[in-house]
Amino acid sequence: LQTLYREHPSGERAIRLVYDNDDVVLGFNFMGVRYRHRVCERWIAERRTVPFVLEHLGEGNFDPEFFPQWEHGLVEVWNRTNPGRKLRAGQKRGIGRQSREHERKNKEVAA
Q1: Pairing of strands 2-7, 25-31
Q2: Can you give the pLDDT at residue 8?
Q3: pTM, 2 dp
Q4: Is 18 in contact with 1 (CB distance < 8 Å)?
Q5: Is 74 helix (H, G, I), strand (E, B) or coil?
Q6: C-alpha to C-alpha distance for 56 and 108, rounded to whole angstroms
Q7: For residues 30 and 92, what is the distance between their CA atoms, to the nearest angstrom?
Q8: Dihedral, 60, 93, 66, 41 alpha carbons, nearest 10
Q9: Distance CA 78, CA 100 (A)
């Protein structure tokens, strides 16, 4: 197992991704940051890779509107440790179109 970890300089917030040798995310630890459990569970169930999750982190964040987002720091850690596989920080906070469509499909299946 491997981990990707980023702690805010204040020590009050941290994110850790746990993943396997194929970069498939197996788990998350969020300390001092609010994330949607369903989004994280879906990423694990869908066997999403670290690059996918990092590019979509904002989808899971539900800190209040004016709280600063600092997930881009986790992308910076990835880029430092994986120089040949650089990523750019993706989606901003909030559920995006893709998640809304996923939720709608789940409701249709359940009905």
Answers
A1: unpaired
A2: 85
A3: 0.72
A4: yes
A5: helix
A6: 24
A7: 17
A8: 0
A9: 28
**Distance of alpha carbon 53 from alpha carbon 4, whole angstroms:** 12
Quote the CA–CA distance of 3 and 18 in Å, as a whole number.
Answer: 5
Six token digits for residue 72 = 């881009």
Tokens of 12: 């009050």
The tens digit of pLDDT for each residue in 65-86 reads 555 556 677 888 888 988 778 7
9 C-beta neighbours (distance < 10 Å), count: 8
Cβ contact 59:39 at 8 Å: yes
Confidence band of 100 (pLDDT split at 50, 70, 90): very low
Instruction: Write down how long the chain is.
Output: 111
